[in-house]
Amino acid sequence: MKIAVAQANFTVGDLAGNAAKILDAAVRARSGGASLLLTTELGLSGYPPEDLLLRDEFYDSCARTLEDLARRVDGITLVVGHPHRNGGKRYNAASVIRGGRIVTTYLKHKLPNYTVFDEERYFDSGDQPCVFEHEGLRFGVNICADVWEEPAAVAAREAGAVVLLVLNASPYHMNKQSSRYEVIRDRVAETGLPVIYANQVGGQDELVFDGASFAVNGNGELTHQFPAFEEALGFIEIVEGVPVKGEIAPRLPLEAEVYQALTLGVRDYIGKNGFPGALLGLSGGVDSALTLAVAVDALGAGRVRAVMMPSQYTADMSREDARAEAEALGVRYTEIAIKPVFDAFQTALAGEFKGLPADTTEENLQSRIRGTLLMALSNKSGAIVLTTGNKSEMGTGYATLYGDMAGGFAVLKDIDKMLVYRLSNYRNTLSPVIPQRVITRAPSAELRPDQTDQDSLPPYEILDAIMEAYVENDLSPREIIAGGYARADVECVVRLVRLSEYKRRQSPIGIRITSRGFGKDWRYPITNKYRHQLD
What we know:
Elements: E1 2-7, H1 15-31, E2 36-38, H2 56-72, E3 77-86, E4 89-98, E5 101-107, H3 119-122, E6 131-134, E7 137-143, H4 151-158, E8 163-168, H5 176-191, E9 195-199, E10 201-204, E11 207-210, E12 214-216, E13 222-225, E14 232-239, E15 242-243, H6 254-272, E16 278-281, H7 286-299, E17 304-308, H8 316-329, E18 332-335, H9 339-353, H10 360-381, E19 384-387, H11 391-396, E20 409-410, H12 417-430, H13 436-440, H14 460-472, H15 477-482, H16 487-499, H17 501-504
Helix pairs in contact: 1-2, 6-7, 6-12, 7-8, 7-12, 9-10, 14-16
């Protein structure tokens, strides 16, 4: 037999649109010779629906849509993920549809409640295996987290399954696919069952789903690997219960993988929310240059606008490089000088500031003027402002609240500074759009004469390593110091991370590409008197 896998880009809450995608995949799968179609976790509703799942009306709408879909599917068996309510309980479910009706429904056993997952908030757990027969073979069904531990897969085998179908909405982070392979091979070793793993693709707020669906045989060997970061309808031939080796899409290099995640995240956030385009402040620095490249690759040059807002501290090379970037990418480019506005602010505040030395107040005023100008252009055009700050800045508070943090979507929020450089060099291998001196020059906010970032921060290669250890790996400052980092640098970074929590809480959401971003999976209190013990 031939099984099809629909690696689709669903939209949360678009029940009719998601059902239409599933129906279209069923028609194409049948035309391609498949008799069984596997879709992804909660594909009918989109994933994750979050607090929509607390509303009975939402379950009622999903049930009506599922029944209508069942009536319309013809000539193929369909396994579809959906929210399900029964007997006052709510479940993450998958139903098998055949001949115009729902044959059986599986209720997810394992409800993840870590990192970005909150399924215990919404769902009750199922405890029964689901096995159905199709063309003489018995298929078991699991949903995502079920296969990260042993019991649900073993239960399917003990109920007679010879092939395991797994519906997933597994969000991307770097090196996630290797973890999936490892987990699935553990389940295969325990059960001896071949596994077909269907994963969602697309952007949903801060999450990006990479697809990259695959199949392994009963020996744990990869037999199929479908592309990452794109919709696909893949086909898997099964002979005597064993997947026959087929399409193996190549794995992407890490920089290419992350760049595609950013591009997909921007495209879907702007497209699914109906924004006509995007605009950003282009400073001549590497962060805004990379953000501009991602935006253009996601949306097309005609939907992106770049605004350079020079001050008296802006270097000539910054203006030259900003113009060169905009020209290389073909976007609309505007320059709006901020000195007249800055002078007006200083005049208005002269009485209050009399006798006080200039400090970060004046620096922040410049940033807030720029943020105000960008938001004004956004209001007039409807385009969303993309902020350009990176994870290193967000972590340490090296950003201005209501200034360069003002905007609707933070493209680089989970990209540390050293990765910004790597991604910029990678993008230039596709076409040279970022001038090399933007990448090689010392980074500066250009808010005072001769300023560089390292006036206030440790070198980025050190800062980023400490941030990764502390934020992503939960190492204590003592452990980080024991790993070879200077005590003064560790104390500085950890202190800045703590002090900046109130800023991050007010920052726009941004694309998550690490195992711990400053979003759904970072929940530290703003009011917090705990201090790490260093001695």
